[in-house]
Amino acid sequence: MGLHSQIFAFSIINFAFPIHVIESTGFNIKDVYRARFSAVTEKDVLKALDNLVRPNRDEAMAVDARQEIDLKVGVAFTRFQTSFFQGKYGNLDSRVISYGPCQTPTLGFCVQRYLQINTFKPEKFWSLHPYIIQSGYEIQLEWQRSKLFDINVAMMFQKLVAEDGIFEVAEISEKQETKCRPVGLNTVNLLKVASSALGFGPQMAMQLAERLYTQGFISYPRTESTSYPPSFDFHGALSAQTNNPTWGSYVKGLLTSGYQKPRLGTDAGDHPPITPMKSASEDMLGNDAWKLYQYICQYFIGTVSPDCKYVRKKVEFSVGGEFFHCTGQHVITKGFTAIMPWLSINDKSIPSFTKGQKIKVTKVELYEGSTTPPDFLTESELISLMEKNGIGTDASIPVHINNICERNYVQVQAGRKLVPTTLGITLIRGYQSIDPDLCLPDIRSFIEQQITLIAKGQVDHHRVVQHVIEQFKQKFCYFVKKIEAMDALFEAQFSALVDSGRILSKCGKCLRYMKYISSQPPRLYCMTCEEVYPLPQKGTIKLYKELSCPLDNFELLICSIPGPEGKSFPLCPYCYSNPPFEGVEELINSAKTSTAGKNGKGAGMACNLCPHPTCPNSLVSQGVCACPECSGTLVLDPISAPNWRLCCNMCNCLVFLAQGAHRISTTKERCPECDSSILEVDFNKKTTPLEDGSTLHRGCILCDPLLHSIVEMKYGRSFKRGRGRGRGRRGAIRGRGRGGVKMMDPKMSFRDF
């Protein structure tokens, strides 16, 4: 088959070649090839093009199986948990209470360590610390028994040693030892070092590594292999580093004297270990990326450097039938520790002794100590546990750790330690009380083993997925039946809605005051009606002039979003969560997914989206003209005085009006040229731009020369006269439960209706 009659596909990720995409195109898979390369360099890409391979269906199916299982299981448990607990407790952040087959066992490791710390009971111990003087140096000897947990026995040995008082040199041993150079660097080891030594979280470390890769500075950073392929060009990789001012001279020495063959590591069959591909400087990369690149370079150079060799000397002493010792060491050859100084061995000198020599003890101290609990898991330790238990892959480990941090299940504290929050602890305890398998690594480890068999073509993809989904389905049904056990734990840890928040506004149903709960997710709670009303997740909520919504009699609130993209808008709590007009949902979704000014998940219908024809706070009354940036409408910000402005109800566009004016308001009049609302501006007497010194002026901000000359647009394209003539299609939205009256809105930019 000729070159031009074939389809070429480029893929950098080893397992994720989209077989289903090929099949959907109708092409024969035999005519599809892929170029597999691990570094974005001309040499590697051209070599890959000269050695095209066919996509591996089994490997692709393994990826599909993992994605399908994680999605279906995660969505089912997350939706149920979130809907069950959302709005139930005052100080519970219930925006998303997620579950994941990998995420939850990851959290389980952190909580398990927390419980070990909390249940730890310190125990006292005692140890002998005898001292001798040799060649003018005082030396503390180490006891062969190390420590005892019975003070009476320890005191007996102390008395025995003190009464004898003479140490005899029983044995002197000297042995040359070797500290081996490291094997190749894989993703997991890179993430561990980035967290423990460089101070980067796993997510940030992978982002930096991926950026270095796409810029051609390192090889592909997602790999499980620590073994280099036989064809790897070590000489070329080292030669690229000879001009580096930090380690260039060391590399030149290696090339001159001969570099070592790397140690045999593990070949996972994916990509070679992470390797530098070309030289760089800190100015080229920036501080953070440079730190990671520097480590990768030094690590790679270390893998082809000689081993570190040193001599360890041990002197053993006997007294009264007890044995003690002291040790010293001396480095002979630094080897790879010269380029990786953080792994270097420190020299420790001890005086010379002769066998049979007798030395008088100067003092024998009885040291008292206590056992200490383990510390909270660090990110590096958590990564090791995840790798050991088969939780996640080299590509997904950073994602799982980042997820439990973003969900507020754990908090990263000093030293990159992961401290579980009350929510994280309660969740894991809840799973343990209902079905411990849900938070243990065993099930996930089994799933990963099955997925590996799929990748090898040894088991059927469909049968594995079907079996796992069926198992989790049974667990899900049992979990739903027993959710009250978890709820009892939540009830003990989180405050009830009745005991949370502060009095803010009146309910339109019972006319009693509702409580405002500011903790995420913010909401109003009516104690009489026992109903919860979600509010915007961003911004400050206050009562708005004690005004009421004409539709449901709920008191209006004002939401003020701070910052450079800040805006303010009134809202009715009931309308916000229960939009009363058909068709508004499309606008709400548009506003929710806009680039800025969004209210977050659960965004509803604020007054700047409401098409009520007579309400003085609705879009019909306060809308001015079409937004020049999107399909939204510029609405007068009701509390922006004296820095008056218009805000788009769907994007982050802001238009600043006459600054310092006493009052700016919309009128019922419309511009005959562009159909925008006429504004009435009451200028400050001292700064009025009107020639006769008057302060009151009416006009259109698009067509009136005076008003148009003093408007200023921010966070968008230039605001030109004539832009936005008309206000888009006039939308007709039918009320629901309000008499079914068809209302025409002359100012809405509902262009997609």
From TrEMBL:
Q: What's a Pfam family in this record? A: Zn_ribbon_TOP3B
| Example GO molecular function | DNA topoisomerase type I (single strand cut, ATP-independent) activity
Which InterPro entries does this one have? Topo_IA (IPR000380), Topo_IA_2 (IPR003601), Topo_IA_AS (IPR023406), Topo_IA_cen (IPR013497), Topo_IA_cen_sub1 (IPR013824), Topo_IA_cen_sub2 (IPR013825), Topo_IA_cen_sub3 (IPR013826), Topo_IA_core_domain (IPR023405)
Q: Which gene encodes it?
A: LOC101498855
GO cellular component terms, alphabetically, are: nucleus
Name the chemical reaction catalysed here: ATP-independent breakage of single-stranded DNA, followed by passage and rejoining
State the Gene Ontology BP annotations: DNA recombination; DNA repair; DNA topological change
Start-end of Basic residues biased regions: 721-739
Give residue ranges for domain Topo IA-type catalytic: 56-476
Q: Per its UniProt record, what SMART domains does this chain match?
A: TOP1Ac (SM00437), TOP1Bc (SM00436)
Q: What class of enzyme is it?
A: isomerase
Q: Which CDD domains match?
A: TOP1Ac (cd00186)
* Sequence segments annotated as region (Disordered): 721-753
Q: Give the protein name, as stated in the record.
A: DNA topoisomerase
- Protein purpose: Introduces a single-strand break via transesterification at a target site in duplex DNA. Releases the supercoiling and torsional tension of DNA introduced during the DNA replication and transcription by transiently cleaving and rejoining one strand of the DNA duplex. The scissile phosphodiester is attacked by the catalytic tyrosine of the enzyme, resulting in the formation of a DNA-(5'-phosphotyrosyl)-enzyme intermediate and the expulsion of a 3'-OH DNA strand.
Family the UniProt entry places it in: Belongs to the type IA topoisomerase family.
Q: Which UniProt keywords apply?
A: DNA-binding, Isomerase, Topoisomerase
Gene3D superfamilies, alphabetically?
Answer: Topoisomerase I, domain 2 (1.10.460.10), Topoisomerase I, domain 3 (2.70.20.10), Topoisomerase I, domain 4 (1.10.290.10)
